[in-house]
Amino acid sequence: MPEQSRPNESPTDRKTFLRHAAAASAGLTGAAVLPQMAAAHGRARRVGGTTRGDVEILVAAEIAEALAVTTYTNIISSAPFFAGLAADDQGYLKAARQEEMSHYLLEQSLTKKPSPFTTFYYPKRMFDDAQTSLNTLVTLEDAFIAAYLVGVRRFSTPDLRVSAARIMGIESDHRTLARVLGPSVLPSDGGPIEKITGIQGKPESVDPPNNNGYERTLRWTKIGQAVDALLPFVDKRKAGKAGFDTRRPYRFKPFTPTLPEPLGEFHSLLG
To answer: What does the pLDDT read at residue 45?
Structure first.
């Protein structure tokens, strides 16, 4: 269920967003791997020489993953169309939620701080309407893919660049699987959905669901471009300007994830 936003919310812009990243750098003494997973595999390692630019990307990614977890959580818990999906389709969404939480915890282990934004806003009818939910989900996954590709381009170390690529590949899976769901939506929930509109604003056929020959960079080359795309989801004023429902804020609720397959778990920044 949505929760009320905090009374001290203030307008957010890109500079404010990135200032949170700069502040996080004060606690970044090296990029330690996620403690729980590193302990399980005995391969903990630190990466030195992390730059302020690295921190800005990591904090932006951390916020994006908190948003992703919140999105999947509320689709599963409150979207009417979820109950009508086949068990394997429900499984896609449940696994994605676990994976996004794992990404968040990895990034938190690098910044040493939680996400500075934990209240999120969505378009009107989000979670109530299947088309809106899938459009928004694909829009977010499009943004996450492009943002992690900025990390591949901009991170200062090979370990961070490879880690960004590894996460980006999972976000690509999530985009495709979200598009798989469209035709499975029941008529009583507005289905079947044959076209889904992502971040580029163009309705695209879900046949085939894997419709990219190459991942879309959206021509983003700096993390500020990803920040601009996320601002309506994190700031009430920007949400209102975008036509989002500002009366229904949703809070990020972290948890301990269980990944679907041990062979696909995070082992270390080395891979």
So the answer is: 37
